[in-house]
Task: structure prediction
Amino acid sequence: KYTRSVTVTAEDTDITITVRYGASKEEDEIVELKDLQEGESHTFEEKSEDMGSWQNVRKILSIKGQIGEDGEVFEKLCETDCEGVHSNIHYTVHKWGVYSRSR
Result:
């Protein structure tokens, strides 16, 4: 159960989003950061891992949000919203630190 990409929309505040991509070894995981303005959306695209003779899709493990430099960090584990393999999951993030899944 996983998603290949994630789209995040900042509903009602500016926010910094961090996405963590899995790997075959934990030390090879990738973390991407994106600052979103209120009302802005961003898609964290699919990534792959070179396994030698084949490519492995990196699962998106989690997204974290932080409002302002001193704001509390809140996290969403993507697997909890997956029912198999998804090409994309869209989340809307709110100023009170809640992710809602858009369908």
